[in-house]
Write a structure and sequence with these properties.
heterodimer; A: alpha+beta; four-stranded mixed beta sheet; two-stranded antiparallel ribbon; B: 483 residues; mainly alpha; globular
Chain lengths: 238, 483
C-alpha cells in the first residue's frame, strides 16, 4: 500500500521530559473510544484493553532510582508490520489520513498482527465485556463497540479527524493546525502530547518532531513510526 | 592357533553359509517369502480381528475426542478466547505449538514413504502405508488448530479466496494464507499418494470379504482387475507422485516456518527457519512412525511377521542422522547470533536457558540430542522394538518442547522489557491439545480395521523379484525395476 504524497499525514509528538505518567491520557482514551474495562484480575493478567498505556521504567540503582514514563500507543507506522500479515485485510492503511486502521468487522482473530507489532500496541477482546445498565449510556456514538474475538488499537481518534475535516470542508477551508486533537492530547495536564499534520512542515507537530531531543521508538526496524518522542538529558525530579 | 582357526573355517564352511542364509531370511522380510494366498489371508485376518480390548479403546478415545476436543473447544467458542492462557505479549500459545507439531508429524509419513521409495530402500515395503496414514491423520489433527486458535472461528472462511459480492480477497501477502494453501495442497496430494498404492490391496480385500466390507472395497478399489495395463498405469502414477510429492512436502513445512521467519519478532526472523523446521519435522515424524510401528506390531495380529527389527534398525539410523542435523541447526542459531546477533536476540537465547521456563529448553536438548546420541549408536538398541518405542516417544516430547521454546517462550521476551511476560497453558488448552491426540489415535484405530495396513502387493512384489546386493559389509535384498 504505497503512500500518496498529496494526502494528509497525521503524526504525534510526545515530550517525555514533561510527561508525569499521570495516566490521564489512558483514561481519556478509554472514554473516547468505548474501550471496555476488563476488571482488576484480567488487567493484572495482562489482558487490559488499553490503546494508550504508560510504560514505566526505573533508572539507576536503589536508593538513587527515578521513574521514567513512556506513553505507548500505536505508532501508526508508515510501513506497518501488522498490515502485511493479516490474512483477511482487517489491518489496513487508510489512504486519506495515512494511518493504520483496524476493520473490526473483518477481523477473524488470528492475533498475528499483535505478535508482529514490535510496540505491542494492539489489544485483543478475549471475552465479551458488558457494561452495567446506566454506564452503557456513556458510549461514544462515533466509535463502534467491539465484540469478542477481534483485535483493536489506537486510531489517532480518526473519528475526530473526520469530524474536523467535515467541518473545515463545510466552511470551505483547509483543516487548521491544532483544530483536531485526540482525546489523549486533550486530557494531558502537562501538554506533553502534540498532534497535527506532518505533511505541513510548519505545523507545530512537524516543528517539534525536528527537535534535537526527538527519537522514534525502534526506528531501526524500518517501521517508519509517526510518533516522535522527545527526551533530553533531564527528567522531572532529576 | 592359526591351524585351528583354518580348520574351523574349512570344516564348517557349508553350515556357516547355511546359517547365514537362515539369518538373512529371519532378518529380511523380502527373503522370507510366503505363499501369496497365505499372506493375503494374514493381512485380512489382522484387519478383521477385533478384540473387546480394541472396542474399549475405540470407545474410550471416541469419548475423549468428544469431551476433550469438541467439549472444550465448544466451551471456548461459546465463552471467548480468554479461557486460554494467552495474554500480552504471548498471543500465540500451545495451539500454534501443537499445530506446528502435528504438521511436522504428518510431514515425515510421506517423507519416509516417498524418499525411501525413490531411493529404493527395500525395508520400507511393509510400512509405507502405516506411515502415509500417519500423514493424513496428522494433517487432520493439525489442520484443526488454525481454526481452534481463531478469535472468531465462525468466519474462518474469510481466509479462503471465494467469490463474494464485495470482491474481497484474502491478503496474499500474509503467511497465514500461504499456510492455508500449502496445507490444503499437501492434504490433497498426500491423500492421493496414500490412495494410489492402496487400490490393488483394496481389490484384494474385495475378493476376500462379504457384506458391507465387500461393498465398501468394491467402491474404493475402482474396479481394479490387475491387468497388465492397470499395473503399468499404477506404477507410472506412483512413480510420478513419489517424485512430485517430495517438493510439495518440503514446501509445506518451509511455509509453516515462514509464519515465524517473515515476521518482525526477534528470534523468529531468521533465514535458517525453513530447513531448520524441515529437519525438526522429519526428526519428529520418523520417530512417530517408529512409535506407531511398535504399537501396530504388538497389538495387531500377524504383524510381527511384517514389521521386523530391520525396520526399527533402518529408521533408528535415520533418526540418529536427523538428530545430528537438528543439533547442527540448533547450534548454528547460537553461533550466528553470538557472532552478529542483536542484543535482543542474545537476551532471548540466554533466557531460553536461564529464564523461568528453562526446563522446557533442557527437556528439548535431552530428548532431541542426548538420548538419540547416547542410545541409537548401538545396533542392539536399534533392534529392540520396546526400547525404540520409548526413545522415539521421548524424541517427540523433545520436539514439542522445541516448538514450545520457539513460540511462547520467544514471544514472552521481546524488545521492550516492560512488556515481558510468561505464559502457562490453562486446562482448556491442555484438554484441546490432548483431544487432538485422541482424535489422531481414534482415526488410526478405526482405519487399522478398515483398510489393509500392509501394502501386500508391494511386499509380494519384493519377495518375488529381489536380488541380493552387497552394500558395504552387509548383504541387502534389492529389487530391480519390473518394467
Amino acid at each position: 500500500m504505497a503512500e500518496n504524497q498529496n494526502n494528509e499525514k497525521w503524526g504525534m509528538v510526545i515530550d517525555l521530559d514533561i510527561c508525569t505518567g499521570c495516566q490521564a491520557c489512558v483514561t481519556a482514551c478509554s472514554m473516547e473510544n468505548n474501550i471496555h474495562f476488563v476488571g482488576e484480575d484480567e488487567m493484572a493478567y495482562g489482558r487490559g484493553l488499553q490503546w494508550m498505556r504508560i510504560r514505566r521504567y526505573w533508572e539507576g540503582e536503589y536508593p538513587e532510582v527515578k521513574p521514567t514514563h513512556e506513553p505507548m500507543l500505536c505508532q501508526q507506522c508508515g510501513n506497518a508490520p501488522c498490515e502485511s500479515v493479516c490474512p483477511v485485510f482487517a489491518s489496513v492503511h487508510s489512504e486519506q489520513e495515512q494511518i493504520n486502521l483496524q476493520v473490526y468487522n473483518r477481523c477473524i482473530g488470528t492475533r498475528y498482527c499483535a505478535n508482529n507489532c514490535p510496540y505491542l500496541a494492539r489489544t485483543f477482546n478475549w471475552f465479551d465485556y458488558e457494561l452495567p445498565s446506566p454506564m452503557n449510556a456513556y458510549l461514544n456514538p462515533d466509535v463502534s463497540v467491539r465484540s469478542r474475538g477481534v483485535m483493536e488499537k489506537c486510531t489517532f481518534c480518526v473519528q475526530r479527524i473526520v469530524k474536523g475535516r467535515q467541518k473545515a470542508s463545510a466552511e470551505g477551508r483547509e483543516i487548521q493546525d491544532g483544530e483536531v486533537t485526540p482525546a489523549c492530547a486533550q486530557a494531558c495536564p502537562t501538554e506533553s502530547i502534540t498532534f497535527g499534520r506532518l505533511d505541513d512542515p510548519e505545523s507545530r507537530v512537524s516543528r517539534l518532531a525536528r527537535n534535537d531531543r526527538g527519537f522514534r521508538e525502534l526506528e531501526e526496524l524500518g517501521t517508519e513510526p509517526r510518533v516522535t518522542y522527545l527526551k533530553g538529558g533531564m527528567s522531572y525530579g532529576g | 592357533m592359526a591351524v585351528d582357526a583354518k580348520s574351523l573355517i574349512g570344516s564348517q564352511a557349508k553350515p556357516h553359509h547355511e546359517m547365514e542364509a537362515e539369518e538373512l531370511r529371519k532378518e529380511h522380510l523380502l527373503l522370507d517369502p510366503m505363499p501369496r494366498e497365505e499372506m493375503n489371508q494374514m493381512v485380512m485376518d489382522a484387519m478383521q480381528t477385533t478384540t473387546p480390548r480394541y472396542w474399549a479403546f475405540v470407545i474410550g478415545f471416541g469419548l475423549a475426542v468428544v469431551v476433550l476436543l469438541f467439549g472444550a473447544w465448544g466451551y471456548m467458542i461459546a465463552t471467548g478466547m480468554g479461557v486460554a492462557g494467552i495474554r500480552r505479549p504471548v498471543y500465540w500459545g500451545i495451539f500454534i505449538v501443537s499445530f506446528v507439531f502435528w504438521i511436522g508429524i504428518s510431514h515425515a509419513g510421506t517423507f519416509v514413504s516417498a524418499i525411501l521409495r525413490v531411493f529404493k530402500a527395500e525395508f520400507r515395503r511393509p510400512f509405507t502405508r502405516a506411515a502415509e496414514l500417519m500423514t493424513t491423520f496428522g494433517l487432520a489433527a493439525g489442520a484443526l488448530y488454525p481454526l481452534i486458535h481463531l478469535g472468531r472461528v465462525w468466519v474462518f472462511y474469510w481466509m479462503i479466496p471465494y467469490p463474494n459480492s464485495r470482491w474481497l480477497w484474502p491478503n496474499f501477502r500474509s503467511p497465514l494464507v500461504w499456510d492455508f494453501l500449502a496445507i490444503t495442497t499437501y492434504l490433497l496430494s498426500s491423500t492421493i499418494y496414500l490412495f494410489l498404492p492402496l487400490i490393488p490391496d483394496l481389490a484384494m480385500a474385495r475378493d476376500r470379504s462379504k457384506g458391507w466390507r465387500y461393498y465398501l472395497y468394491r467402491t474404493l478399489s475402482l474396479g481394479w482387475r490387475g491387468t497388465e495395463a492397470e499395473w503399468f498405469r499404477l506404477r507410472k502414477a506412483i512413480g510420478i507422485f513419489a517424485f512430485a510429492i517430495i517438493p510439495v512436502m518440503f514446501s509445506v513445512h518451509t511455509i509453516v516456518s515462514w509464519d515465524f521467519a517473515v515476521s518482525m519478532v526477534a528470534g523468529w526472523q531468521s533465514t535458517i527457519f525453513g530447513p531448520y523446521f524441515i529437519i525438526g519435522a522429519i526428526l519428529s515424524g520418523v520417530s512417530a512412525v517408529v512409535t506407531i510401528l511398535y504399537i501396530l506390531r504388538t497389538t495387531m495380529k500377524n504383524f510381527d511377521y511384517f514389521i521386523r527389527p530391520e525396520v526399527f534398525d533402518g529408521l533408528g539410523k535415520l533418526i540418529l542422522i536427523f538428530s545430528m542435523s537438528w543439533a547442527y541447526f540448533f547450534f548454528n542459531e547460537y553461533l550466528l547470533n553470538w557472532y552478529g546477533g542483536t542484543a535482543v536476540i542474545k537476551k532471548i537465547l540466554t533466557l531460553h536457558a536461564t529464564g523461568p521456563s528453562a526446563w522446557v529448553w533442557y527437556v528439548m536438548l535431552i530428548c532431541n540430542v542426548a538420548i538419540p546420541w547416547l542410545f541409537l549408536w548401538s545396533k542392539k538398541v536399534r533392534r529392540t522394538p520396546w526400547l525404540m518405542f520409548i526413545i522415539t516417544l521421548l524424541v517427540n516430547v523433545g520436539m514439542f518442547a522445541e516448538r514450545y521454546t520457539i513460540i511462547p517462550l520467544t514471544l514472552g521476551h521481546q524488545r521492550s522489557p516492560f512488556d515481558w511476560g510468561i505464559y502457562n497453558p490453562t486446562i482448556i488448552e491442555v484438554s484441546i491439545v490432548l483431544g487432538t491426540l485422541c482424535l489422531f489415535i481414534f482415526l488410526y484405530l478405526l482405519a487399522s480395521r478398515i483398510i489393509p495396513l500392509i501394502p501386500v502387493w508391494e511386499v509380494q512384489e519384493g519377495q518375488m523379484s529381489h536380488t541380493l546386493r552387497k552394500v558395504g559389509k552387509t548383504t541387502m535384498p534389492s529389487v530391480t525395476e519390473l518394467e
